[in-house]
Amino acid sequence: MGPGGFSLVPLESGPPQFGVSAFESRPLFPSRAWLDSGGQETVWTDIWLTNHIAQAVIAAGLVIGFWLFVSRRSQVVPGKRQFVGEYLYELVRNGVARSIIGLEYRRYLPYLLALFSFILINNLFGQFFLFMFPTFSKIGFAWGLAAASWILYNGVGIKRYGLIKYLSKMTLPQGVPKPLLILVAPLEFISNFLVRPLTLGLRLFANLFAGHLVIMVFVVGGSWLLWSTKSSSPDYSPIWNVAGGLSILMSFAVFAIELLVGCLQAYIFTVLTAQYVSSSLSEEH
Amino acid sequence: MNPLEIVGSINLIGYGLATLGPALGVAWIFASVINGTARQPEARGAMLSTAWIGFAVVEALAIIAIALAFVFR
């Protein structure tokens, strides 16, 4: 197993097939076995405590630590530390929360800011040498965030309008002729309550999963071409090695694109959450 | 063993074709926002917030397609 799971493992038996092991979570601690009083052997593995869970928890710690650090001892004339913090804060506050939600953006700002920084840090872990894995390319993490946003935008809508009025507001658009509502209402329901969280989670997951997979195609394939072609073998040709070197070089460009995609997806997830909150709060619609 | 043998599912080609529609749709949405911003810079915020909803709806097609490309083998 290479660093970051960049290695080829044979899948089951049969014809030679190869897969990549980086997307499989590994338990942090090895299994422990002990004999109880009856002489029975018990094997215990903390299967839930995997390297990817640890990565997400570390990211949460980093987010909390960063915002505590930059907001500590604020002064009227900001220093460098406070300037960086205020700059990033205003990016989310003015660029996302205030321009989308409008007047009452302050109540939703903490969630949006935490969401943005948590997703951003987790996505940057895909390029960070210690982890080399974007947490949200495991779909469960993405579902968690999508569920949190789903509960938030439905919760504020129900709190403001009450369940019945909120449901009718979200499923019965104004200005649609009565007979057409038979067709429109189910579509609106599916779109607003099912497709929204589904795409929110899948968009984040699919972008990071695909990006990480492309990186691995270039890195693993490149190193495979460089090292596993023996010059003694009959079908050897130096072009394999040249292609391998080029593909390793190409992987740097893919890493750069992934950096961009990671930032963009963090921004889009935050913008869409703000958009959904604003749509369940808006009066007309 | 041929080291460059490619094994996989052909429905990913179908997914590739299916992304063409959403790709053109997303491109069109943001091209319109850029156009509109050039014509009337003050309206950028209003246009962008509508564009994000349109973007989410259009890109949902591509996202559902990639999910289905993995489901139906």
Give unreliable regions of chain B as ranges: none
Strand proportion of chain A, as a percent range, falls in under 5%
Q: How far is it from the N-terminal to the C-terminal residue of chain A, by CA?
A: 54 Å
Can you list the strand order of the major beta sheet of chain A?
Answer: 1-2
SSE class of chain A: mainly alpha
The largest contact between protein chains, plus residue counts on each side, is:
A-B, 24 and 16 residues
Rg over CA atoms of chain A? 25 Å
Let me know the average pLDDT of chain A: 86
Number of H- or I-type helical stretches of chain A: 7
In percent, how helical is the residue content of chain B?
Answer: over 70%
Shape of chain A: globular
Radius of gyration of chain B: 18 Å
User: Which bin fits the share of residues in helices of chain A?
Assistant: 55-70%
Name the helix and strand elements of chain A from N-terminus to C-terminus, one letter apiece.
Answer: EEEEHHHHHHH
Which stretches of chain A of 5+ consecutive residues score pLDDT under 50?
A: 1-7, 13-17
Strand content of chain B: under 5%
Q: How many distinct helices of chain B?
A: 3
Description:
The complex is a heterodimer of chains A (285) and B (73). Chain A is mainly alpha-helical and 285 residues long. Chain A has one domain (47-281). Chain A is 64% helix and 5% strand. Chain A has seven helices and four strands; from the N terminus they run E-E-E-E-H-H-H-H-H-H-H. In chain A, strands 1-2 form a two-stranded antiparallel ribbon. In chain A, strands 3-4 form a two-stranded antiparallel ribbon. In chain A, a hairpin with a 7-residue loop joins strand 1 (8-10) and strand 2 (18-20). Chain A is globular. Chain A starts with 7 loop residues before the first strand and ends with a helix. Chain B has 73 residues and is mainly alpha-helical. Chain B has a domain at 22-71. Chain B is 77% helix and 0% strand. Chain B contains three helices and no strands. In chain B, helix 1 (11-18) packs antiparallel against helix 3. In chain B, 8% of the residues are buried.
